[in-house]
Design goal:
Blueprint (H helix, E strand, L loop, with lengths): L2 H13 L19 H12 L8 E6 L4 H14 L4 E4 L11 E3 L2 E2 L2 H19 L8 H15 L4 E5 L17 E4 L7 H4 L3 H8 L8 E4 L4 H14 L2 E4 L6 H15 L4 H10 L7 E4 L3 E4 L5 H11 L7 E5 L8 H9 L5 E5 L3 E2 L2 E2 L3 H15 L4 E4 L3 H11 L5 E5 L2 H8 L5 H7 L4
Parallel strand pairs: 1-5, 1-6, 2-5, 6-7, 7-8, 10-16, 11-12, 11-16, 12-15
Antiparallel strand pairs: 2-3, 3-4, 9-10, 13-14
Helix pairs in contact: 1-4, 3-9, 3-10, 7-8, 11-12, 12-13
Length: 429
């Protein structure tokens, strides 16, 4: 059996565990949400606490947390610090979640750690909290790998929310950060911005430095009070012109607080590349993959579009079936002041699935009826057929945007860079 086959078997095994850590199984009785933290800590205790002895930077927020986390890791690496990065979600393949320097964990190392974990998983199943979730296992694999490779620093991107996320077992981070607060996962995090902020600010810990680029004064006051209550230092980034500048100013401020010079900050920012963040895959016509999957991210995507020149805009879109805010994601795309054709498609691949394109079409038509939008709509369920169809119709001065879902962007990225290439090269570019 080849290593790539073994790797895919190992990933299938890890992903076979439920992801109840994202609270799908809480129910109306509002069970103790700290259960997920306790379960993660119990599992790590069985393993001899691989989470110990790192300097941590912990990042959450509604949008931009992956970009901020990756850029901070690049800056730390440029300054000579051996730094691990754990992010979520991945674009093409699971090893993208776990990185040291500029290289993902190798398929061989991933397989070896999964085999090492199996008896501990069996023990955990008989314990007080049951076995770990898929997300908790990926997190654990990352910690073991970082320890094996003798990392000094670890940058953690929160998987979901903050307060009850598995990554929040970290008790003494050096830095915590919230990029921004907006409406996302409201069924789980809360219906109001204050409730969402309260969940995310659960990562703020005593004796840490806390940074945010959130601009709403009411939320800044909430963060500032929490910092006073727990004994953390509070820093708010000043107003910037756009999301890109907010992200850059946030990472620069965090890096400078750690004593890193501008030389290494600039080098780290220059080295930062993330797949499917308004990623240009080809020209004539331009094709861009963008994993924007909530209202805040879509606003950033539209801002980027405004800096582009094209004759007609084609959009291939879907939305993850975990989202409840379909209209908030769709309506900005339906309101664009361009000649636009939108194709609704679907992703069905393991736990990476999206809502029915028929549902999205229904939402779009209702919106068009009220707003008299001239955007044309179509359904092509297979995303690869959707891309092929649009490429046949588009001219060299047109623009093709794939958006609404990391799952969709990652699936179509295979048209240019395959999963096997990423696995063999341990990088995305």
């Amino acid at each position: 059996m080849s290593i790539l086959v073994k790797y895919r078997v190992a990933v299938e095994y890890v992903e076979s565990f439920s992801n109840s850590s994202i609270r799908k199984n809480i129910g109306k009785d509002k069970k103790d949400l700290n259960f997920f933290i306790k379960r993660t800590q119990y599992f790590l205790d069985l393993l001899g606490n691989p989470e110990k002895d790192f300097y941590y930077i912990h990042v959450t927020g509604t949008a931009g947390k992956g970009t901020v986390s990756t850029t901070i890791q690049e800056i730390l690496t440029a300054s000579g610090k051996k730094t691990g990065l754990f992010t979520s979600p991945y674009v093409t393949t699971s090893i993208e979640k776990i990185r040291i320097g500029g290289m993902y964990i190798s398929p061989e190392e991933f397989v070896a750690i999964v085999e090492y974990l199996k008896p501990f998983i069996a023990t955990a199943h008989t314990g007080p909290y049951g076995g770990p979730s898929s997300f908790e296992l990926f997190f654990t694999i990352a910690l073991i790998y970082f320890r094996q490779q003798k990392c000094q620093w670890v940058v953690l991107e929160v998987g979901f929310g903050g307060r009850y996320d598995a990554t929040n077992i970290i008790s003494r981070p050096v830095v915590t950060a919230i990029t921004n607060i907006d409406y996302d996962h409201t069924d789980f995090l809360g219906k109001t911005l204050r409730e969402i902020a309260t969940d995310k600010m659960g990562i703020i810990k005593p004796e840490s430095s806390f940074f945010t680029s959130e601009q709403r004064p009411s939320l800044q006051r909430l963060f500032q009070k929490t910092c006073r209550d727990v004994g953390a230092k509070f820093f708010a980034i000043k107003h910037q012109r756009n999301y890109f500048e907010y992200n850059q100013e946030l990472v620069k401020t965090i890096a400078r607080s750690l004593g890193i010079t501008d030389e290494y900050i600039d080098k780290g920012i220059h080295n930062t590349q993330l797949p499917c963040r308004f990623e240009i895959m080809q020209k004539n016509p331009v094709i861009v993959l963008d994993g924007a999957h909530n209202r805040a991210k879509i606003r950033s995507t539209i801002h980027n579009l405004q800096n582009c020149t094209f004759k007609k805009l084609y959009i291939i879109a879907t939305i993850s079936d975990t989202k409840k805010d379909n209209r908030a994601i769709l309506e900005p795309l339906l309101s664009l002041p361009y000649s636009t054709h939108i194709v609704f498609t679907q992703v069905k691949k393991g736990d990476r699935s999206s809502v029915s394109p028929t549902l999205l079409m229904s939402i779009a038509r209702k919106y068009q009826k009220n707003k008299r939008s001239k955007t044309t709509l179509e359904i092509i369920e297979n995303p690869h057929y959707a891309l092929e169809s649009i490429k046949k119709n588009a001219h060299e001065n047109d623009f093709i945007l794939v958006t609404g879902s990391f799952f969709l962007a990652g699936e179509l990225r295979n048209e240019w860079i395959s999963e096997d290439w990423v696995l063999q090269n341990r990088r995305s570019f």
